Amino acid sequence: MTGAARGLGEAVARELAVRGAQVALPGLEEDPLARVAGDLPTASQHWHVDVTDHEAVARVAEEVRHRLGPASVVVANAGVAEGGPFVGSDPDSWRRVVEVNLVGSAVTARAFLPHLLDTHGLFLQIASLASIGAAPMMSAYRASKAGVEALAHSLRAELAPRKVGVGIAYLNWIDTDMVREADQHLVLRQLRARMPRPARKVYSAEYIARRLVTAVERRAPSVYVPRWLRSVQAVRAGLPGPVALLARRELTRSEFTATGLLGAGGRAAETIDQSRA
Fold first, then answer.
1. 45 phi and psi angles, rounded to 5 deg
2. 172-185: buried (b, 16+ CB within 10 Å) or exposed (e) per residue?
3. How far apart are CA 183 and CA 103, in angstroms?
4. Would you call 123 helix, strand, or coil by DSSP?
5. How far is Cα 233 from Cα 82, in angstroms, rounded to an integer?
6. What is the rounded distance in angstroms from the CA atom of residue 89 to the CA atom of residue 84?
7. How far apart are alpha carbons 225 and 199 in whole angstroms?
8. Which residues contact 114 (CB under 8 A, 6 or more apart)?
9. Strand order in 122-126's β-sheet?
10. Nearest-CA neighbor of 260 among 188, 200, 194?
11. Is a pLDDT exceeding 70 seen at residue 134?
12. Which of 52, 56, 103, 110 is the most core-located residue (most Cβ within 10 A)?
């Protein structure tokens, strides 16, 4: 379970443990992960690792096998976000969103798929409305989430003959520190305010986690929270045109600037980038 230091990842880890699973928590933020692992009702452990580092994640996968046994469920949840115009955006922040969200998911899958091949388990990719929508001002996040959707579809086809399931979770706004911080920035606050009323609603991480873990238990190929997101799939090809027309009218009313990486997870990702510089 990646990205479990707080927010949705923490809620999913807790829900898995409540239902009897031992949970392995690899991620950047060692102290929060240690707190989460220590609070879980099952024997769970954490590892300090950057999910974009293939060799390090591969080592963690072997340690998980040794300490807890081969994984039967892998949840690729680690993610960061930023908002603002692509023109003039910070290329390092933009790249980091894609690296964590897309490359990190691929690294996680590559490291843990040998486990799932042994257990005939399930890989659950956390995606988003951004995977299928056409929102402006979130180019890095949208590109990364469209990428993880494509990755999951490809893996599902490849792994079906080997009895490994691949699920995709399409989610909307969740009450996490990342979303709360996003609302403090004009560009993302106005983006959400201009969405249709049902699309603005924020759901608790605990509610989303219950839905996700139930989908895991059922080996569902997809889960949509809220459920109306499924209907967006039917019209996704027609979305870019109307969204562009709306943006042409609305985005001229204010001057927008980039948000930088959002939330505590984003700041942790920035720290890794600075240490590599």
1. -135, 160
2. bbbbbebbebbeeb
3. 27
4. strand
5. 24
6. 7
7. 11
8. 61, 70
9. 73-76, 122-126, 165-171, 222-225
10. 188
11. yes
12. 52
Looking at residue 165, its amino acid is G
Query: With bands split at pLDDT 50, 70 and 90, how would you rate the model's confidence at 166?
Result: very high
The closest of 157, 156, 158, 130 to 144, measured between CA atoms, is 130
| CB burial of residue 121 (10 Å; 0-12, 13-18, 19+) | buried
Is the separation of the CB atoms in 81 and 60 below 8 Å?
no
Q: How many CB atoms lie within 10 A of CB 19?
A: 14
Q: Report pLDDT digits (tens) over 50-62.
A: 999 999 999 999 9
- Domain 7-276 matching CATH 3.40.50.2000: the answer reads no
pLDDT in tens, 111-132: 999 999 999 999 999 999 999 9
Q: Which residues are catalytic?
A: 141
Asked whether the beta carbons of 191 and 138 are under 8 A apart, the reply is yes
Beta strands in 120-266 (DSSP E): 122-126, 165-171, 222-225
Q: Which two tokens stand for residue 17?
A: 């443990």
Rounded to an integer, the average pLDDT of 67-85 is: 95
277: pLDDT strictly greater than 60: no
DSSP string, 90-113: -HHHHHHHHIIIIIHHHHHHHHHH
**Residue with the two structure tokens 């079906």:** 160
If we measure between CA atoms, which residue out of 266, 261, 223, 267 comes closest to residue 91? 261
Proportion of the chain above pLDDT 90, given as a percent: 72
Whether the ω angle into residue 226 lies within 30 degrees of 0, i.e. cis, is yes
| Mean pLDDT computed over 174-201 | 78
Q: Is 257 helix (H, G, I), strand (E, B) or coil?
A: coil
